[in-house]
Specification:
Radius of gyration: 31 Å
Strand content: over 45%
CATH topology of one domain: Methylamine Dehydrogenase, Chain H
Strand order of the largest sheet: 39-40-41-42-46
Shape: elongated
Number of strands: 58
Number of helices: 2
CATH architecture of one domain: 7 Propeller
Length: 768
Amino acid sequence: MDAGTRLWHLRGDELQQRDLGAPPGSGAPRAVRLVDPDQLLVLTDAGAVHACDVGSGRWSPVLEDGRFRSYGLLEVARLPGRAALVAMGSLGGYVRVFPLEHVAGGAERQLFAGKVHSLSWASRPGSDPGTCALFASGPEGALFWLEACCGPGGQGLVLIPRGRYLLPLCRHRWHTSAAFLPQDGLWVCGDRRGSLLLFPCGPDPARGEGESEEPPACGNTPEPTGESPAQGPVSLLFGLHGKMGVTSVTCHEGLVYSTGRDGCFRQLRVRAGQLEELRRQRPGKGLEWVEELRFTPDGDLLVLGFHADSFVLWSTCAGAPLRCLPCGGGHRSWSYHRGTATDAFSWVQAGAVHVCCGQAGSSGLQVLREALHGRQVTSVRHVGAVLGPGRPPLHVLVTGSEDTTATVLALNTEDSTATPLTTLSDHISSIRALAIAAGSLSPPVPGELSALLVSAGGRAQLECYRLLLSAAPTAPAGIACLVLHVASHRLDERWDRMRNKHRMVKMDPETRYMRIAVVVGADATELPPPCVVLAAACSDGSVRLFVLQEAARCLQLVAESFHHQRCVLQVEAFVHRPAGGARKHFLCSAATDGNIAFWDITATVAQATAAPEPTDEETQPWDLGAPVLTVPAHSCGVNSLHVLEIPCGRFLVASGSDDGSIHVCVVAVGAATTPVLLQEQLQQPSAHAASVTGLRLLQPDLLASASVDQRLVLWHLGKAGLAFLGARFCPVADVAELDCWEATGPGEQPGYCCALAGQGLEVMWCQA
């Protein structure tokens, strides 16, 4: 149950698979490339290139060159409205380029003394339609940029050297893909070692002998190496995709996207001439090899990859595969081409060429409503509202689920629609808790919403993101969402880096973060602006404090306490601001025994934020000590907890339990000897018929509670206790959490929006 609606057409997928065999009498096929869905090219181990008409299966020879015998590279690029350019690389360092419609009018160069390791085409924004960039890698990291220029029909082809570059020293020292940035005169490439590199386009190198715009009279001499010095990268992200290598690089809407055999694709940007990773995404379960990304005009993102021995075409909008074709795996030569009406996939297997063709939209799947989550929604948080010109505010929510993903949603209260903006998929286990921290490192931009998102869950994993949201009338949801991955933390990774660990007991690898709370946000005035302090309730019986330094992208564990000696379910933080005095930071935590513990963490927060710059060395966390006050609120586990400040330095603390009861107490901040004093408390024993899983203090005299009994109840809080005001039944089963925020209803009436998360998500408006 993912809350999505899909339309499936009850007909065949209309895929046609053909075995084209091998070209007649010219050796075994080594490389295959699709020119379009109706035509493909094959390079054989005899150095021959053959063309095949996919519809009829008829082969026709194109050329044969003995220099490409036994080893050869083949790449094809289609110029807009012009010829198809074919590039070949040989074992002897030769690069030959020719237009498919005019084979005799080709050009060639011997770029290297050794073999050509890789070839790739790239189109340069703003260039002439008759030009295309060709990148060639050779021995010892040498990388050449050539520009192929031709007229209509492929006439007058010339190869113009544009740059010579040098890849950093590593074991697999050749590039795999390249793309030009639309501005700044830069281009980016990925290499076989898994690194991303940024190079300047630079001025055209001085042309020497054989570098005129006319085709060279003889291509048997190596390219001179001493005339123009090789340029190195201006920015390097070493091993970003692991040792299996980068498979593709592309630019879209000012951002850089890279894919790799690590099963991920990454989103990056160029800032101040340096590559900066924004986030990492896994497109689908089990897609361990991601080969390429295709952005469609309708806003979908298609992911080309491999799962086991099958080629998979994955749609991120549909969250499902559009194609799944057994081909033997991605280590063989293959090619995919997608046109406006048809698509085709071709591969080489067992010495034969195979091709599978179909209609581009013939998967039989149409998404009427995008899915939310595949399993139960465990947490929901309201980020804020984005104001657009001439339209009502759009609210932004974040949901976490047992399917290990978090989804950012745009909620339009006018037409009651929720549109997913993006999905975060960095967790390896269930997400149990979310937290939002206001403030940012940079000054606020008018019309833009910036917030820090923290997600926590199974395997003791914490992930931190920076959300940048702004109004975008052209976007499907009216909001543009940019996500920057800030930092992550896992306790078992800390254990792996720890010294003398043979003297200590290893933490439980199944530890879960049950709840996360922001103790100090980035907008705190008395702390360094990059510092954010987080508190976590853990299933191993501990309460842990973390410090996030956003500028350094570092999240560190600084303090912990095992006072509860049982699973800690809830944690909340509150701040006392005395007139003319320093802030005091407090924490309250609740466990499965029904007790609520209050902690004075002022000194710990000051010590943690005053620590020196983070290092790679792990230090032993400090001890939080003992709580300053313990309140026996319930007879069993506390599933919900909320704190609200009221006048005179007092705080309302409300909690809900497994037995359906609600407990409310009033605490006050006292002197140094007794930091927290219990002043009042009251109990509502049968507030709900089942476990109370959501609780919010809306006002000092108004409380909202949600339960597994599928009721949202409003209570009046007075001296006599809780008085029932009203209830609404919700269709969401197994309610796990409740979040509320102020909003206007029909007729501009003041009230609250209440979001209930469980087996689905429901947002309802309640009048104050």
